[in-house]
Amino acid sequence: MKVLSMKYTSFFVLSMALLAARSNAFLSHPVRSNQSFVSRDSIPCRSDFAKRAQSSSSSSLQMSIFDGVKAPIQSYVDIWTPTFHQAMDMGLAPDFLIHWGHGAAMASVLLSMGVIGAYMGWQIRLGNGEEVNALTLGETIRQAHPKIIGGAFFFFLLGGQGGLVLLDTQGQNILESPHAVTALLSVVLLTVQAILPSLFGTENGKLARDAHAYLGSATMVALFAHLATGVNLGLSF
């Protein structure tokens, strides 16, 4: 009997030890509550942070570029916006014209005078400046080139003011978009291009001619970038 009792006692102790071991193993892996699970979609991905950072830095850059001039330009724009509001109220200026009129006018100048002027500039560089064709209206290419590009520059400056007024007329903020930045870049490049020919007759004339040719091509790239940002701005509201 003692032997049997000792066997049952040993079995009981061994069973309790195994049960305790299982309990400890179970407690070492606590059950996660539902609150510990976070939806993957609810966590902003790195691209979202990058986009927000890029947008913030872009806005800061635009503000820094036009800081100090926005207030006087806004005051100038405010002179003209009431006239356009009256025209809209009277039905003389449809919404479509107010929205896309500036873009259509400037695109026509770029795709006609801008492209033709750039073409003539390279014809002069290639040695064809004394030729006369249908685009020069009786003048040589060398004579017509500065007139056509100068006329395009004039219309760009005039049309830029109209673009600011029309944007403000539609309740949008001025000088706060990539379109404004590309406008400033284009005007700076066109101004430099207008100055460079005065250096053609100096001792650095060859360098000035080279700069004028290649910078002219860069100016056309900037103008087409300005066209693209303008379309994007028009589609944004």
Structural commentary:
The protein has 237 residues and is mostly helical. The chain has helices spanning 2-27, 46-66, 70-89, 95-125, 141-169, 178-195, 205-235. The chain is 74% helix and 0% strand. The protein is elongated and about 55 Å long. The N and C termini lie far apart (97 Å). The model is unreliable at 1-51 (pLDDT under 50).
Write the layout of secondary structure elements.
Layout: H1 2-27, H2 46-66, H3 70-89, H4 95-125, H5 141-169, H6 178-195, H7 205-235
Percent in helix: over 70%
The average pLDDT is: 83
Q: How many beta-strand runs?
A: 0
Please state the overall shape, judged from the principal axes of the Cα atoms: elongated
Most strands sheet: none
Which structural class do you get from the secondary structure elements?
Answer: mainly alpha
Radius of gyration: 36 Å
Secondary-structure element sequence?
A: HHHHHHH
* pLDDT < 50 runs, ≥5 residues: 1-51
C-alpha termini separation: 97 Å
| Tally of DSSP helical segments | 7
Strand content: under 5%
Descriptive terms for the model:
single chain, mainly alpha, 237 residues, disordered N terminus
Give the gist of this structure.
The chain has helices at 2-27, 46-66, 70-89, 95-125, 141-169, 178-195, 205-235.
